[in-house]
Amino acid sequence: MTAAALKLDEATPGKTVLYLSGHLDAYSVSAVWSDALRILRAAPNAPLVVDCAAVTYCDGAGVALLVDLLRQPRQPGAEVTVENLAPDYRTLLDQVDPASYRIAPTQPPPRLPLIARLGHATASLIHESRAQISFLGDAASALVGALRRPAALRWRDILAVAEEAGVNALPIVGLVAFLLGVILTFQSAIAMRPFGAEVYVADLVGLSLLRELGPLMTAILLAGRSSAAFAAELGTMKVGDELNALETMGIDPMRFMVVPRLLAGVVVAPVLTVYADLIGLAGSAMIMSLFNVPLVTFVQQVTGIVGSGDFFGGLAKSLVFGAIVAGIGCLRGIQTGSGAAAVGRSTTSAVVSGLVLIVFADGLFAVIYYHLGI
Amino acid sequence: MARASDIVIRVEHLHTAFGSHVVHDDVSFDVRRGEVFGILGGSGSGKSVLLRHMIGLYRAQRGRVLIEDEDLAQAQGRTRIAILKKIGVMFQLGALFGSMTLLENVRLPLEVHTGLSEDEMNLIARMKLDLVGLKGFENYLSAQISGGMVKRAAIARAMALDPRILMLDEPSAGLDPVTSAGLDRLILRLRDALGITVVVVTHELASIYTIADRVIMLDKHSKGIVAEGAPADLRDHSDNPWVQRFFNREPEDVEANNA
To answer: Which of B75, B124, B138, B186 is most buried (CB neighbours < 10 A)?
Structure first.
């Protein structure tokens, strides 16, 4: 295989001949392309002949080089012509109209003024809020309809989702809760030790775990794990027209796909939260024993400070968090556009929106509990 | 008999099974340089699976597939890349990258494997899209165009590096007859001008008669090749009932099969 090469002949006055030779393909043509263009541009007023007699091979990339030479703007009488190209390669060149590849000057898209961009962002926010409210209404309606006729619910689907989102999440929830209990206790105990108040670390950890950290941490894990999974699953179904297929069969996707996930989320989140609370307390008790606080003292301290309001308040939160996580995952899945990239965007959006809504709801709970005296 | 140097792809005693389900049992054939080679067969006869063996996605359980005397499935690293650069593949559903425009899809192999500048790559990619009738759609995403256009863009991407071997899985399916005929003409033109070898998996008889020099026909019952030759010869002279039914578009006797 002869490498691509070019040679310039300016011996004839008023005429430039560019001899191309060798193998012109995608791997070799770059060696001569920029030089050929430079020569062409250096003589804008003289006719240029591209002699291809010594070209041994010329595929699409080689033809593209010739087209690039032919499409360059030239003065009248200074045209570029391609000569002696083998007939097979000439056939490939002849199917292309170089004029149609002329380079048109492009203008950058106009930048919108600030007020217009603000308007677009506001409209987008309103549209998004409307979609969420609409979804909330649809989901609530489907949920009530399903609960009215529980026999019509697809319990097998609900159990499968609950197993995936709940049972299979036990190891990660357990690990994070245990570490949370351990770290919280250890850090607090070190700070309390100079005051001889290590025993009150049990109160601190018990209260914060059951009221706040247990439900919050579990919801965050559910958002990262299950909400993303719901969005990806429903998004892929949307891209593959499976949700449309359900509709054409007279099956409400909301009832068929969303309700089982919502119910599973609402059931699984409190259960996982109780589990996380217990594991977190176990981790805390373990560290407290290292600070010479026996288990019985730890339990007494925790049961003394944590009331039923704290425990059930935490559970109520986790119930709402579960609904948020499952709902936002399903919403983003259903809102998926077209293509694999859209599924990725939905998944990311499900996790981000889920986390934002969880934090927002947690703040709301704090205000409500404060006013209720819980 | 073809000389060894004329053989571009050699499939030797290929055996494929998914669990207990045998797809191919002792399948052997050669594809010669510069021919348009058709792989025919009914649904479920293993045409696409065979193609996936030929492009190195599946590793043979028994037997082997050689591309210009090299076993792609066994090749590693640079050797594998070098073999893959000889092959352009169009998948049945296009397999375009949804996050990229059509132009970016076609430009991708050029970006990875050549030292061309951005302008040079853009021109080549635009010309490839023009070849398959997608001029003006360079900046569209695959989700914004029809299924037939996705296929054509996938063919443009397969041809981006002007590979010596082009493998097309159902290129005409879903295309209108005019576009399909244009595609046939394009395949023949590329073969004639550049001497490339084209392997086509298809059901489209009209296309096969137009472009294929030779075909093999796979059968799901015998798990192997039931006929091999020029399409018109098989249509006119094969005494295999399944081949006859296929070329004459006769329905299968379902009751007899179920009996």
So the answer is: B124
